[in-house]
Structure formats: structure tokens, C-alpha cells
Amino acid sequence: MATAKEARDWARVALRGIGDSLYTPFRGADGDEIDWDAYRTLVRYCVGDLGHQMLWCTSGIAEFWALTLSERKQLLEVAIAEGRAVNPDVVVQACTATTSAKDTLELTLHAQEAGADIVYIQTPMMETHGGEGVLRFFTYIADRTDIALGMFNSPSSGYVLSPAEAARIYEEIPAVCATKEGAFRPAASRQLHQLAPDLMIWECDKNVYRAGWLRAGIVCPAQLGTSGYLFETPRRPVLTEYWQLILDGRLIEAMDHAQQTGMDQLELDLGPWFTCYPGRADYFTHWGGAFKYAASVLGLPIGDHPHSRPPQAELPEEAKVQIEAAYRRAGLIPA
């Protein structure tokens, strides 16, 4: 674990590779319980079977808004215990975003005490007074904790920080060392790099990596939080092979690999179900039921309640048919 003072030096070395954002498997009536055995299996699969280097816990794919503080703490503790039993060096990243600064502080202090390596705070979801309000939120947490901090700039918050606002947070809070730029606006990420050249940026738009942004130092060599375990299997580790080509600077080979293995086609075939609910098509979401259905198609356990908790809707049959067909076409499940 990096202290606040060590955060930036630590991040330059430690943040590398694929970081898996874990879903939460539910069970029982209305999904009111968590299937802990299924969750442990998922952690071991990501760290052991796939050999991914990082975990990203209790964030959007985990449906953090539908979890109690107690559940979020236990999910992180289990991920740390199971992940480090397989790989003692696995980097554990915790998202502690809530609508309350006090609850975010409680989760951040818990992550610090439990042994997480870094905490990410998503731009608050409710009543955020722009970048000034987000800065106050981060300052409140940083003044009371001693752990590396990251920003998570996601449109699912309803407010996305501008490059200048994010750079100001980095400038004023030494513990802030990384950011997940989830708004798919690479021009803004390039501007943010110019304003804060030592900030570790992960841009969710994959095309920038093919464009040589890693070699140029604009983005970092880490996928801070992804659903990478849904895009390969131990038998066909196509994402790991692709990412290694990117890290090695073999960009043409990486693009050929993505086309020839069906990686690019898989993303097209899956459609928008992971991040778009048709009844609110203008809003970016993390549809937990879609991620978990995809995991079940690949043979991963998701608990006996396959749906998201409220306020998310149940995944329609149309989505299930499309997702399964996509994996069959990609060769990740038997034809």
C-alpha cells in the first residue's frame, strides 16, 4: 500500500497491466444476499487463471450504489484475501464513491486499514457544484486519510470534470496520482496530460493506445478498471496477448491481432448492453445484469439471482440472445 506521500512514485511503477472491475454475485430472494463463494471464484479466476495484474473493487460494475457500506467493506476484504493468496503482488484498487463525504471517508479509511493499494473516488453522483465541489470532496478525504488516491471521471456521475478541473485536483492534493477517464473524450485526456504531465491517465477510448499514446507518455501502461475477464478465457487469452503487444509498442501487430482474433468484432457484436439501458439511451450506465449474464455465458458463477438490484432493470431476453451469439461467433464458447 502506498501512503499519500509515496503515491506518485509508487504509481509510476505499480500501475501496469489489466485491472479487472469485479461484479457482485447476488443470491436469495430479490438478490438481498451476496454469493460469497461465487465472488471468491471470480477473484481467483481473474488473478490466477487469467493472470491479470490488478483488481478494481466495488465500483460501477459491482453496482456500488446498490450495496450497503458493510457489504462494500466485506467485498474488498475478500478480494484482498483471495487475490493475494494467489498473487501476493496483485494491486488492489478500491472505489469508495458515495453521495456522502462522510461515508466515502469511512470506506476510504477501511480500504487503507484493510490493505488496498489505492482508492479511486468517482465524481460524486448527487448535487455536485462543478469542479470546485469535487475538489472540496477530495480535499475532505485527503485531509483525513493516508493512502494513494485516484480520480474516476465517469459520465455515469452526471458530471464530468474538465481537464482544468482535474488538473487542479492533482495540483492541490499530493495523494492523487492517477485517473480513470471514462467519458470517451480523448482530446480532453490529451489536454489533461499537458496540464498535469505526471498524472497517470487511463483513457477508456482504446483507439488512443493504437495511436501510440502510451509510447508518447500521454496514457499509462495500465487498464485501471475494465471487464477484461469478459473478453478472453484461459484457453484463448486474446486480450492479454493484445495488451502485451501494446505495451511492447508493436502497434500494427496489435491491430492485426485484434482483427484476426475477433476481438474488435466481439465488441461490435455485444452491442451497447453493458453501458446503455434502452429506456434511457442518453445516459451512460453500468448495467450489472448485462455484465453478469456475459460472465455466466463464459461459465463464471453469478449467484442464483442473476439480476441487478434496484434501481436497475432486469436484462431483457433480446440482450441475452445477442450476448450469447457474440461469444459464440468470437470462439470464446463452443459453437
Automatic annotation (TrEMBL):
Gene3D superfamilies: Aldolase class I. The keyword Transmembrane helix does not apply. InterPro entries: Aldolase_TIM (IPR013785), DapA-like (IPR002220). Coiled coil: none annotated. GO terms for molecular function: 4-hydroxy-tetrahydrodipicolinate synthase activity. Keywords: Lyase. Belongs to the DapA family. This is Dihydrodipicolinate synthase. It comes from Mycolicibacterium thermoresistibile (strain ATCC 19527 / DSM 44167 / CIP 105390 / JCM 6362 / NCTC 10409 / 316) (Mycobacterium thermoresistibile).
